[in-house]
Amino acid sequence: MRLALLGVGREPDPAGLPGLTGVHRADTPAELDAALDLLDADRLLIDIAEVAGLNLALARLLRAGRLAELDTAVLLEQPVGYLSALGLPADRAGQLALAVAGRPRLVGVLRDDSGGLCISSATLTPWTPEQPWWVRAVVDDQRLCDGAVRRLTVSRLGPSELVAEVRLGRLRSRRRRGRAVQLACDPAQIVADGIGRERPRGRRTFWSEPKLWRLALPG
After folding, report:
1. Where are the beta strands (DSSP E) in the chain?
2. CATH topology of domain 3-101
3. Are 110 and 127 within 8 A, CB to CB?
4. 82-87: long-range pairs with CB below 8 Å, 24+
5. What is the pLDDT of residues 125-158, one digit of tens each?
């Protein structure tokens, strides 16, 4: 199997990976696009410090139309709960072994109607802090909330399933599970995988997209 290594936001470390067809570093979307254009490998190893860098890499693969087809592996410094639950080791030695010998599985992503994606979770909070914040949210055909809330979080449960949780008060919350969540709200700050949007949003739909992202995993 031909392997290529891509460092996102940091210098890639090829130690323990002999015979790579290419080693690239990219810090911006344009640099990522250029690196992907040069890619000549069966599996892309993405070397990143945190989930925000992985989000950027997958977003560019999606834009290039390659996220459903290209095998990938992840060398991740900071654990991500969803990936850990799938079997991604926390240590680099384990991740390197999996990158070489793991079997590709479709693990899905969360998509949204702005064209973005999410690997782990997205959080919505009031654009203006400390102000009453109205949200109406529906998960599939189940009402989650329609009124003043403090925070709404959408998290991955599996390739086809998400969970939306709304914080109603200091000690009160409500959760709903499903495939998609639709919401309308007062202006909101949206942070997906640690990446904040630059402008407030008043509507958003998130849905599970199970037929994207081939990731090397155990067994």
Report:
1. 3-8, 22-26, 43-48, 71-76, 103-106, 109-112, 117-118, 121-126, 134-139, 142-148, 151-158, 161-167, 173-178, 180-192, 195-196, 201-209, 214-217
2. Rossmann fold (3.40.50)
3. no
4. 82/119, 82/120, 82/155, 82/156, 83/119, 83/120, 83/215, 86/215, 86/217, 87/217, 87/218, 87/219
5. 999 988 889 999 999 999 999 999 999 999 999 9
Residue 104 β-bridge partners: 216
Mark out the alpha helices in 67-195 (DSSP H runs).
Answer: 81-86, 92-101
Provide CATH code, domain 117-209: 2.60.200.40
Sign of the Cα pseudo-torsion (66, 68, 71, 76, in order): positive
Q: Rounded to whole angstroms, how far apart are CA atoms 213 and 116?
A: 14
* Span(s) in the chain for CATH 2.60.200.40: 117-209
Quick: pLDDT tens for 22-56.
999 999 999 999 999 999 999 999 999 999 999 99
Nearest to 214 by CA among 32, 86, 25, 34: 86
Specify the domain boundaries for CATH 3.40.50 within the chain.
3-101
Look-up: residue for tokens 């899905």?
108
Q: What is the rounded CA–CA span in Å between residue 164 and residue 121?
A: 10
pTM for the structure as a whole: 0.91
